[in-house]
Design goal:
By secondary structure, the protein is an alpha+beta fold. It has one domain. The chain has a five-stranded antiparallel β-sheet. A two-stranded antiparallel ribbon has the order 4-5. It is globular, with a radius of gyration of 18 Å.
Length: 185
């Protein structure tokens, strides 16, 4: 038997089609104000993390959302759906305020490189080629919090109806759904 010194990647399940693994941030990009292919409008605030997961490729994880705003003045009044950004920054050790223009300071972004955390992926359908499609949940956990803590938060979120694209029924192969052209890669 030949042993490899390369870090072994293990897939551990926390429910049907739910996987949690360690990741290390190898690069970070501020995507605030950018329109992404799967969005109708840009995120008010967001980060795109390039991840080292111990495999031959580096996936990206996007964490973003929109602030809660006053209907009349459009003034930011709270985190709104961008709470996932606030939670992630807190878990990465940043507990200060945003810049005056509600952006993440550049030095904070760069300080994220090298940080380790737990990432949850879940089955979200099938691709046109019949293979399973997986999505990343935009909430993370620290290594100290542990995978079961993240899995439990995901289960509570599922009970509330989120994420809406969790599709464990496709795992047995009897139910398929067509992928959109952007998902067919």
């Amino acid at each position: 038997m030949t042993l490899s010194c390369e870090r072994q990647w293990q897939k551990r399940t926390y429910g049907p089609g739910i996987y949690i693994n360690e990741a290390t941030i190898s690069d970070v990009l501020d995507i605030s104000g950018e329109t992404l292919p799967y969005l109708d409008r840009p995120y008010d605030i967001g980060i795109k993390l390039t991840l080292d997961i111990g495999r031959g490729f580096q996936p990206e994880l996007t964490i973003g959302g929109n602030f809660r705003r006053d209907v009349d003045t459009n003034e930011v009044t709270g985190w709104g759906s961008a709470f996932t950004v606030a939670e992630a920054l807190s878990r990465f050790g940043y507990n200060s305020e945003l810049s005056a223009d509600n952006t993440i300071p550049p030095d904070v972004l760069q300080s994220l490189v090298g940080k380790q955390f737990l990432r949850l992926s879940y089955v979200s359908g099938t691709k046109q080629n019949g293979k399973l499609r997986y999505s990343d949940w935009s909430q993370i956990a620290t290594l100290d919090e542990g995978a079961e803590s993240l899995a439990e938060r995901f289960r509570r979120s599922l009970a509330k109806g989120y994420p809406r694209n969790y599709r464990p029924q496709v795992l047995d192969g009897s139910v398929t759904e067509p992928a959109t052209p952007a998902e067919a890669f």
